[in-house]
């Protein structure tokens, strides 16, 4: 049996990891909500943001967190452009299937270009505080992990506030809930959908920077992320941001705890087991609404 | 309906044309007549892109350095050597089709091995079945030698499981009250990396030293928090990492984040990389690593290699480069002994036969092999002492004394 | 035309009696009475025979065993993408996870040979049956919900299989890989390649034949109805869920056969290469590029993609740009010719000669819409499932 302190340590690690999952899954949920699109390239953009943070740090020595001021707007614009220029041109009847392939191809292009520009070498940002940590109720928390979690939590709170309390957020939620009805209310749903897409991609920018603080990055890393993220959004109920966040925290924690008894590889399967179980027994997801029923 | 049929006919014709063009593309081999003036063409497939691209490129540099040095001296058997290098994209399908192409279509005279155990086994089978000598720079895992290959030779001092032999001897020779009592192992799920860690594990367990953690992580692991937590919680006296490069760095940083202070820490490959110290924020003190090659190695050909390699590439060679160069030296020795270099089965057979019974002088020292192609030497053990990695074992080659217990990192 | 959309039949009636199959196997698209002999049957038959002759004589023309291995690789691609097309082409459900079934077939065959000492080809077919059995629960989970979840499950399938086959090393060999013994010990390598070239060609012929049979069956009509408009197909009484599941299992079984045959030929299995999303994506790319509505579409796609990948490797050398090429190719296909090059080329040809009435089977939804416009929408919905979709979504084509 693992000692109590080790279990607590794992819980802490699980929470820190779950926060990042939650932010990234929120982005995926947004795309799905506004466009019914499964965005395979989400994690490729995540890795792209991480590379930009790493590159900026290596070249200029700036703190990776500062790159957010560039990458967040940049990714927002890229998201809007991607929605406008690529996804809206697909036939509506086949949008869901074809958008998967289209975003898949975007992911391949990003991976190939990252490999071309930065080579396949694994990279890691070297920070002065990389190995720093502090005690917390007997558990030890790495400074970088806490910063990453803080970023994710702040971004998620910001997203929540934006969606709940701004006019744009209301329009976005209306578009997600019922596009035609939103149109009848005078909402420019195309524009809102574009912004929603941009917002989703902006979460990848924040997530990527957080990721770069504490882990190694390499071009094909995105495959490693997309599986768990997709499992999270299905378990959480496609289209539900709070559902995705809860599922992310739960599964992140489970993965961390399972690592105590199982090997790292087996622990990762928890995401897929949850995914298959959800689809077999509760296809609409555990926290999802009406949306998930048909998709 | 007529339209439909014509169109389908057109499509079929199109397909046919493509097939024909296709078969045209792939045919048309090179001429194979050997004449004394023709260069000796050596075929290699290397992972220049994909997961193994970093070491793959190192091996490529080693081969290129060897070819240049040989040609500058007038070549082999009076003929120039020429490398034909294909990229296998770190993919086993490709590596097989590459060797198939090199041997069948391009009709190279000799082949060199690729990088990584995962690619060595399938490609060695191709060479074996075409009766070609197969000397390889990077398949150190035990299963490489269990396949019954008769033409395979590993051009490095020792197989993966023997990398830590000197360290195991040192630990087991310590007085019982000073020895580490518990050890935590973490190895990448890779035949080579696991081989190094488990070779040591087996010997230490036999000596009565307890294993308290035994973790395997997939090659794509980037977050080592969980594994590090387990190791730190076990408070093991010693930690052994069966690592490649970046995973070793990550694990060490994760252990440092948890403020885990073992008495001894050994990691394969990672600590010998030039970037290592910077990558772990210079907290390297006391970390041990096995190595098969040192630039200071006191062998005649090594001085030449280091000097000319540095001139050609602007930096000193590392282990991958050295192993590739060793491969070249081994094959060259066989070519000279057999006095031939061609696909002719008799010639290849003569070279294999000769290598079975002879020792070859290389940049990693004199090498000889058992009947399965396993080299019979041992790896040296290096340790980070005073901010520099130095050889501490075996006694006769040491540059510094092994520090035990290791200082805090 | 064997068409009766009102009363969809159970899947069991889908396959035609063997005798009828052999009569039709010459490759004619329609019954002989409907078309002039010279215009349809003979040239098509001749061309088909010519292609078969070229394919069969290729190994003896190849200057070295290497060319045969290239031929095997392309045949393998062709079998895989044709197998994929059972699901993708008929139902329009796009699976990115068929690489998983190929890997399962390969490992299944390899493990049966090494652990139970079944004869290699018995192991191959046993593995295919086992994979088909695995495909049932996977299909059950994946097909209950439409679209997005299906794709997610298909990707998850590959990822979970990779994890399982890596972790369960005591059984699968893990990252050490699995060595599958040669089915014909003692055979020289060149002869080994030649034998497997013909085995792959035979498997391709079998896959094409089954696809062709389904294409003309009521079962096939039901599946295509799902592709065009699943809701309408369902309301017309097609047991859509059963149909989808059956064809998914058939597709998995063929994919598994391709994977298993590959394992027997290649000999070395490694989870990383066997369970790769990329190989599944290549299947999709090949089928889409060639045209999923056409029997030979995936084969054509396999030939094109096989050479495009080879070319980009030669051209761009040691850079990962082949990924960019594959990505761009996939993007272009999805954006500009989602029906594949065959319809794209057809449309081009159509501009030059607009003749005669085409069979309703062979028009794309876009063409249909055009024609419907000319007829001012007088077509009855019950005319066929296909036209039903046209009225539903405007651009109802799925592929």
Automatic annotation (TrEMBL), chain A:
The chain crosses the membrane at residues 6-30, 37-56, 68-87, 99-119, 139-163, 192-213, 225-248, 260-281. Pfam families: BPD_transp_2. It is found in: Cell membrane. It is a multi-pass membrane protein. GO terms for biological process: amino acid transport. GO terms for cellular component: plasma membrane. InterPro entries: ABC_transp_permease (IPR001851), BCAA_transport_permease (IPR052157). Keywords: Amino-acid transport, Cell membrane, Membrane, Transmembrane, Transmembrane helix, Transport. The keyword Cytoplasm does not apply. Belongs to the binding-protein-dependent transport system permease family. LivHM subfamily. This is Branched-chain amino acid ABC transporter permease. It comes from Streptomyces sporangiiformans. The lineage of its organism: Bacteria, Bacillati, Actinomycetota, Actinomycetes, Kitasatosporales.
From TrEMBL, chain B:
PANTHER family: LEUCINE-SPECIFIC-BINDING PROTEIN. The keyword Transmembrane does not apply. Pfam families: Peripla_BP_6. Keywords: Amino-acid transport, Signal, Transport. This is Branched-chain amino acid ABC transporter substrate-binding protein. It comes from Streptomyces sporangiiformans. GO terms for biological process: amino acid transport. PROSITE patterns: PROKAR_LIPOPROTEIN. InterPro entries: BCAA_transport, Leu-bd, Leu_Ile_Val-bd, Peripla_BP_I. Gene3D superfamilies: 3.40.50.2300. The keyword Signal applies. Residues 39-387 form the Leucine-binding protein domain. Belongs to the leucine-binding protein family.
């Amino acid at each position: 049996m693992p000692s109590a302190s080790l279990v607590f340590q794992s819980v802490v690690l699980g929470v820190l990891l779950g926060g990042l999952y939650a932010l990234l899954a929120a982005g995926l949920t947004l795309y799905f909500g506004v466009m019914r699109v499964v965005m395979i390239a989400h994690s490729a953009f995540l890795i792209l943001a991480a590379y930009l943070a790493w590159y900026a740090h290596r070249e200029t020595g700036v703190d990776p967190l500062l790159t957010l001021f560039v990458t967040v707007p940049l990714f927002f614009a890229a998201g809007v452009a991607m929605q406008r220029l690529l996804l809206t041109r697909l036939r509506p009847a086949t949008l869901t299937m074809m958008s998967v392939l289209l975003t898949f191809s975007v992911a391949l292009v990003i991976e190939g270009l990252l490999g071309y520009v930065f080579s396949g070498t694994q990279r890691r940002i070297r920070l002065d505080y990389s190995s720093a940590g502090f005690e917390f109720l007997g558990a030890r928390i790495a400074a970088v992990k806490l910063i990453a979690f803080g970023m994710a939590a702040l971004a998620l709170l910001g997203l929540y506030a934006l969606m709940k309390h701004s006019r744009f957020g209301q329009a976005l939620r209306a578009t997600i809930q019922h596009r035609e009805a939103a149109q009848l209310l005078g909402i420019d749903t195309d524009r809102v959908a574009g912004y929603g897409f941009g917002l989703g991609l902006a979460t990848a920018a924040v997530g990527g920077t957080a990721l770069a603080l504490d882990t190694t990055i390499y071009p094909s890393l995105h495959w490693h992320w997309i599986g768990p993220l997709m499992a999270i959004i299905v378990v959480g109920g496609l289209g539900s941001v709070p559902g995705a966040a809860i599922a992310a925290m739960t599964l992140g924690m489970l993965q961390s705890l399972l690592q105590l008894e199982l090997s790292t590889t087996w622990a990762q399967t928890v995401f897929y087991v949850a995914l298959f179980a959800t689809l077999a027994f509760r296809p609409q997801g555990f926290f999802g609404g009406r949306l998930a029923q048909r998709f | 309906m007529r339209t439909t049929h014509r169109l389908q006919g057109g499509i079929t014709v199109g397909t046919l044309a493509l097939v024909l063009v296709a078969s045209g593309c792939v045919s048309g081999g090179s001429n194979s007549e050997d004449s004394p003036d023709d260069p000796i063409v050596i075929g290699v497939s290397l992972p220049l892109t994909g997961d193994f691209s970093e070491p793959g490129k190192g091996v490529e540099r080693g081969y290129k350095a060897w070819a240049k040095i040989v040609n500058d001296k007038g070549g082999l058997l009076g003929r120039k050597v020429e490398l034909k290098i294909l990229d296998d994209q770190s993919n086993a399908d490709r590596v097989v089709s590459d060797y198939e192409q090199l041997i069948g279509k391009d009709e190279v005279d000799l082949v060199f091995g690729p990088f990584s155990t995962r690619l060595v086994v399938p490609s060695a089978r191709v060479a074996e079945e075409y009766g070609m000598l197969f000397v390889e720079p990077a398949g150190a895992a035990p299963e490489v030698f269990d396949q019954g290959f008769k033409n395979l030779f590993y051009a490095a001092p020792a197989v993966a499981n023997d990398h830590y032999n000197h360290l195991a001897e040192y630990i087991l020779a310590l007085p019982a009250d000073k020895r580490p009592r518990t050890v935590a192992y973490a190895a990448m799920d890779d035949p080579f990396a696991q081989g190094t860690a488990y070779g040591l594990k087996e010997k230490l367990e036999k000596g009565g030293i307890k294993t308290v953690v035994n973790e395997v992580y997939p090659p794509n692991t980037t977050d080592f928090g969980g594994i590090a937590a387990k190791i730190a919680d076990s408070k093991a006296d010693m930690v052994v990492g069966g690592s490649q490069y970046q995973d070793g760095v990550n694990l060490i940083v994760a252990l440092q984040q948890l403020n885990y202070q073992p008495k001894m820490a050994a990691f394969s490959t990672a600590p010998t990389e030039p970037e290592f110290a910077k990558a772990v924020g210079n907290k390297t003190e006391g970390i041990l690593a096995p190595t098969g090659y040192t630039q200071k190695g006191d062998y005649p050909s090594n001085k030449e290699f280091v000097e000319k390699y540095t001139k050609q590439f602007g930096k000193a060679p590392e282990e991958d480069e050295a192993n590739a160069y060793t491969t070249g030296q081994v094959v060259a020795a066989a070519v000279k002994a057999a006095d031939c270099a061609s696909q002719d089965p008799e010639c290849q057979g003569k070279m294999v036969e000769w290598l079975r019974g002879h020792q070859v002088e290389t940049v990693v020292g004199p090498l000889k092999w058992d009947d399965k192609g396993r080299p019979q030497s041992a790896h040296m053990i290096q340790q980070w002492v005073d901010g520099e990695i130095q050889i501490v074992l075996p006694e006769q080659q040491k540059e510094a004394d092994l520090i035990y217990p290791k200082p805090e990192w | 035309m064997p068409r009766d959309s009102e009363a969809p039949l159970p899947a069991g009636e889908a396959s035609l009696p063997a005798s009828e199959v052999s009569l039709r196997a010459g490759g004619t698209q329609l019954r002989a009475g409907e078309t002039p002999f010279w215009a349809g049957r003979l040239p098509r038959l001749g061309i088909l025979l010519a292609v078969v002759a070229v394919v069969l004589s290729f190994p003896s023309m190849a200057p070295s065993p290497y060319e045969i291995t290239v031929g095997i690789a392309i045949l393998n691609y062709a079998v895989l993408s044709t197998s994929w097309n059972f699901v993708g082409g008929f139902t329009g459900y796009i699976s990115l996870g068929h690489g998983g079934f190929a890997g399962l077939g390969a490992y299944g065959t390899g493990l049966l040979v090494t652990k139970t000492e079944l004869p290699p080809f018995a192991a191959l077919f046993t593995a295919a049956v086992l994979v088909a059995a695995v495909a049932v629960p996977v299909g059950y989970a994946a097909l209950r919900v439409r679209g997005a979840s299906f794709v997610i499950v298909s990707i998850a399938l590959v990822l979970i299989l990779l994890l399982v086959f890596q972790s369960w090393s005591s059984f699968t060999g893990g990252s050490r890989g699995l060595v599958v013994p040669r089915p014909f010990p003692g055979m020289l390598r060149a002869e080994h390649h030649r034998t497997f070239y013909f085995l792959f060609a035979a498997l391709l012929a079998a896959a094409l034949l089954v696809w062709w049979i389904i294409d003309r069956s009521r079962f096939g009509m039901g599946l295509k109805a799902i592709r065009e408009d699943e809701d309408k197909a369902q309301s017309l009484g097609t047991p859509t869920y059963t149909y989808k599941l059956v064809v998914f299992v058939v597709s998995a079984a063929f994919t598994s056969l391709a994977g298993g045959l590959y394992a027997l030929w290649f000999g070395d299995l490694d989870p990383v290469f066997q369970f790769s999303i990329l190989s599944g994506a290549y299947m999709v790319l090949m089928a889409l590029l060639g045209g999923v509505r056409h029997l030979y579409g995936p084969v054509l796609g396999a030939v094109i993609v096989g050479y495009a990948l080879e070319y980009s490797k030669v051209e761009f050398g040691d850079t990962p740009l082949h990924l960019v090429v594959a990505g761009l190719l996939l993007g272009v296909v999805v954006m500009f010719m989602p029906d594949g090059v065959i319809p794209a080329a057809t449309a081009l040809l159509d501009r030059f000669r607009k003749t005669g009435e085409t069979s309703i089977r062979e028009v794309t939804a876009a063409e249909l819409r055009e024609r419907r416009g000319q007829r001012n929408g007088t077509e009855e919905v019950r005319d066929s499932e296909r036209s039903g979709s046209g009225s539903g979504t405007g651009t109802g084509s799925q592929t």
